[in-house]
Amino acid sequence: MYDFRPASGLPKPELYEDLLAAATGLTEGESDAVANMANVAALLFEFLPQVNWAGFYRVVENELVLGPFAGRPACIRIPMGQGVCGTAAASGETQLVEDVHAFPGHIACDGATASELVVPVVRDGQVTAVIDLDSPEATRFDADDARGIEALARLLSDRI
Ligand code: SME
């Protein structure tokens, strides 16, 4: 049995240290990308408060295709360059969106979502996937969240 749980009330940098340690342990030595993405999506959903969707879109033949996630059913295919996820994948840069309604071209999968953080996963200089987090709270994500998820993306680079 795995029993990774966040300690309550931790400052964000420490919460992300714990999250990274748990993700390292869960994916260590496992070569199946789907299994690793599924466990990490579950971990993100369990560790991060005020998050209504956590998961992956994978780059498949130059578009984004839904991967393992926790949350409500979501859009399956996103063209590169479109929405928050497509922008992160096309630019290779983290997208920290404080108010999704102010982001041109935002793709609404869950009407409850108010803010979003999308971080590309890069392997050998190519974006292979993005990690997407949605929150029902505006301005839920900040630079600490971006740094934490970017560290997770580096860890997962050759594990998904
Ligand atoms: N909002 C995203 C689409 C994916 S869902 O949030 C799960 C976007 O604009 O790319």
UniProtKB/TrEMBL annotation:
One of its GO terms (cellular component) is cytosol. PROSITE patterns: UPF0067 (PS01320). This is GAF domain-containing protein. Residues 49-157 form the GAF domain. Transmembrane segments: none annotated. It comes from the Bacteria. GO terms for molecular function: L-methionine-(R)-S-oxide reductase activity. It comes from Qipengyuania algicida. Belongs to the free Met sulfoxide reductase family.
